[in-house]
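Lab notebook, bench 4. Still working through the backlog of constructs that have no structural model yet. Next entry is a single chain of 594 residues. Request: give me the C-alpha cells for it.
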Amino acid sequence: MNELNRNLQTSNNVQKQANLIWNVADILRGLYKPHEYGKVILPMTVIKRLHDTLLPTRAKVLQTVEETKAMNDQMKDKFLQKASGYSFYNTSDFNFDKLLADPDNIEDNFRVYLNGFSENMQDILANFKFDIEISTMADNDALFYVIQEFNKKESYLGADKVTSTDMGYIFEELVRKFSESYNEEAGAHFTSRDIIYLMTDLLLNEDKEALSGENVVKTVYDQTMGTSQMLSAMSERIHDFNKSAEVITFGQELNPETFAIAKSDTMIRGGNPDNMGLGSTLSNDQFVGYTFDYCISNPPFGIDWKKDKNAVQAEHDMGEIGRFGVGLPKISDGQLLFQLNGISKLKETGRMAIIHNGSALFSGNAGSGESMIRQYVIENDWLEAIVQLPNDSFYNTGISTYIWIITKNKVAERQGKVQLIDAAKMFEKRRKNIGNKRVDISEKCREMIEQAYGEFENKEYYLNDKVVESKIFENEEFGFTKVTVETPQKDEFGNLILKKGKPIADVSLRDTEDIPLKEDIQVYFEREVLPFNPDAWIDRKKDKIGYEIPFTRLFYKYTVPEPSELIAERIKKLEASIVASFENLSGKDVSNID
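Model written out:
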C-alpha cells in the first residue's frame, strides 16, 4: 500500500476510533466538567488498549498462572511474559465481558482486574491517578456505562488490528482535545506525523549506508517525548531501511498522563519500559551519562523555565562539565536549553533534529545566552541545516517553525558550512483543518524538501506551483562583532574636551555597530563610520561576539514597486466606484459637491 493510501486509511481509522471514544463524554456530562473528561477517557483508552492487546493470549496466561503457582516471583514473571507474548500481562480472571455481566459488583471487580496487571504496568496506571475517578463513576452509576461503551465491538483497540501508528494518532487526537479544553500554551503543541516523517528522513538521509548490513543497533532519544510518536516513527523509518536492525528507544516526559501513554505504547511495541523517564528534562535528567545515535524532539517554546531555574543555574555554574555551561537564555523561553541538552546526549557520530520557533534564530544581543548558544553550535561546526516549515503546520499554533539538524560529524562537503532551506511554500492545503493545522507536507512535498537537502546546492526546486529554496553559507557568515563607537565631548566652541591628553567620550552619543566576522573591523570603521563622524573611535575593550541567523532576510526577494501612474489610476477608479455607490444609495448627484 502506498503512503498516500496508508495515511488516508490511518486518518479514517483514527478519526473513527477517537470519535467512538469521545462518545463516553455523553456519559460523563454533568458528572465532570468538559476539561475534566480526560481524567476518565485517557486512562480508560490505555486500559482498553492493554485489555484488547492481551485478549488473544489470555487463556494461555491464565493456564500459566495455575502452572507456576509454586515458582518464585521472578521465575513466574518470565513464564507469564512468555505466555502473553509481551513484557506485561494480566493474571485476573476478569475481562470487560465478565465485568459487565456482574453490574452490582462492577467497582470491586474492576479494581481486581486492574490489580491483575503485572508490576511493570502498575506505575503506568498510578500516573493517571485513576483510583478516585473509579469511585466517582461508581458512586454516580457511570462506571458500568463507561466500560460498556469501551467494550463495543467497534471500540476494539488490540495491537493486531490497531497499529502503533494509528494508536499514537488516537492518543494525540484525544490529548489535543483535552489540551484545548485546558487552554494550554501555544508552544505546548503536538507534532503531526507529516512533520515527524520529514524530521526522521532528514536525520537518516546521510546514514543510509550505515543502516545497511547485519548487526545494526541504533539508539534513539526524545527529551520531550509526549506520547512517544517520534520514537515509534524513528523505529519505523529505520526498519524501512533495514528490517533486521535493532532500534532501542529512550525518552523523557514531564506530564504523568502522557508519560503513561508513552510507556504503555513502548511496552506493546516490545520496547524496554525502563528506558522511559518521568520528570523535567532540564532539572531532573533521567539519562545522565547516556549518549545516543539520534536525538529527535519538539520541545516547548515560548514557555518559561522558572520551575527549573535553580537546577539549571547550578548546572550552568559547573561550566564545561554541565549541560548548560555555555550560556542561559532568558527565563521566559527555555527552548535553547533543550538544544544544549540534546547536544550533550549525542554520540561523536550522533545526529539531532529539533524544532524551534523563529526566536531561536536571532533573539538575544551579542554576548547574551541565546547568542552564545548559537555561537557554540556554529563554531563547533555542528549546525548542518535549518528547514523553515510552512505556517499552520501544527495543531495548536500557526507561527513560523524550523527544524534544526545538528550533527557531531559532518560529511566532508558540509564541513564549515550551513544549509538553509525555505520550505514555507512546500505544502498541500488540508480539506479539513485540525485546530490550527491547515496544511500538510505530503509525500511528494517531503521528497522535494529531502532532495533539496540531499543535493546541498544553491538552488530552487519546483513542484507545480510550489517551491523550496536551498542556500549554502559559510559558518562565519552568521557571526559578527558588536563594537562600541565613541564620540568625544566638545565645549561650546566645538573644541574637544581632553583628560590627560585624551578625548572624553560623550555617553549620550555612544553607538554600536555590528561588523560581520568576515570583515576587517578597522577597514569597516574607516568606510562606514569615519566619513560621518571623523572624531569617533572604537573602544575595543567593549567588543562582543554575536551570532544570529537572519533567515527571513537571507531569503528576501526584492519586488519592484508598482509605477505611481498605475497606483493613481487604481485610486481614481476606486473613488469613482465609491461615488457611484453613494449616489445609488442616496439618490443624489454628488459629482459637483466640493
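Notes after review: Residues 4-9, 183-189 have pLDDT under 50 and may be disordered. The chain is about 40% helix and 15% strand. Flag for follow-up if needed.
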